[in-house]
Amino acid sequence: MPGRLYVVATPIGNLEDITYRAVRVLGEVDLIACEDTRQTRKLLDHYGIQKPAVSYHEHNETERAEELAERLREGASIALVSDAGAPLVSDPGYRLVRAAIESGIAVYPIPGPSAVVAALSASGLPTDSFRFGGFLPHKQGQRMKALEAIADEHATVIFYDAPHRILESLEALEQALGDRPVVVARELTKIHEEFLRGTAAEIRAELASRDSVKGEITLLIGKATAPPPDDTPLQEAVGALERVGIPRMEAIKQVARRRGLPKREVYNQLLNSPRQ
Prior knowledge:
Distance between the termini: 77 Å
CATH topology of the largest domain: Cobalt-precorrin-4 Transmethylase, domain 1
CATH superfamily of the largest domain: Tetrapyrrole methylase, N-terminal domain
């Protein structure tokens, strides 16, 4: 008889944030697959769960997924957990879930804590529609492109970020999106939990004044709003930016973003009008 795979959400900080069902399942399965066995063992010891654990992380995911899938085919029940929160959300696990499904193994989600939902619920930003973008790219150019891509997003956008990069990310956010409302949620559910709300520039100034920034970071960005009407001719609007030192292509991009137009459309219109 084939086994079962349970995808179990675990606390993101406070060990009390776990469901009764999750504790029961972790105590009943044959094996627990986790990112860091030492981290998960703290949770298991807290609840008196004595079950074998095996590492399953980004560096061994390919080969370990097949090993665990074989255990499932042999009838074992396995719980998949991450170090914190819901597995597979910016964490490994996809390959194991796919391997189980392809082998006809039942996969059961055991829902629970998620930094994305926790941060959103207390952010004060609109919750009717949101988009999760994973971790912001660590390279400057890629990070800027990721932020520019959400300029017209009419939903709250959520990213994870590293504490040693958050100042750079906020600076890039200000350049890409201007005064969009921003929330930085830090150390969710832990002793030093903190929400910083304001513009990217305001929050960056606050964090820059500190000796250091530590802890897990969830970055939330408010939805785009309709740009105010602007009847200034495109050539004149772009020219005004050029006169203060902004390169022409960047000026075109900024004008397009302010007016809610595709950059290509603005560029084409300028090609067909005399340059001042």
